Amino acid sequence: AAGRATRLGVGLLAVAVAGAGVVMGAAGVVGHPVGLVTVAVFYGLYRLLLVLVDARLQERIDGPARATVTSVAALGTELACFAVYAAWAVGGLALAAALVVLVVAAVPRLLREDVPTAATP
Description:
This protein is 75% helix and 0% strand. By secondary structure, it is mainly alpha-helical. The chain has one domain (7-110). Helix 1 (10-30) packs antiparallel against helix 2.
């Protein structure tokens, strides 16, 4: 499902989404209708990151806990989304973008690529 983007490293994806978050924050500061384009670009990159992370998680889970692990991961994703919405409501687009950049800065540390994948039969 993730296609060619599966070959992208976690660091490159984090930089792309963090850059999109910075652009989205700048659009909030400028306050011009063109800023909606940057919000759309950010959302597209964010969704790409979610698809890739979900695909990599599925590759690494083996056994009967697969459904539980993916459900807990989805809950974490939804909670992060609500945190961004709350930041937007409290501090506007600039604060939401700053939160995104801070969270994305942690992605390479949290999603190390040196974890072995599950063996396929």
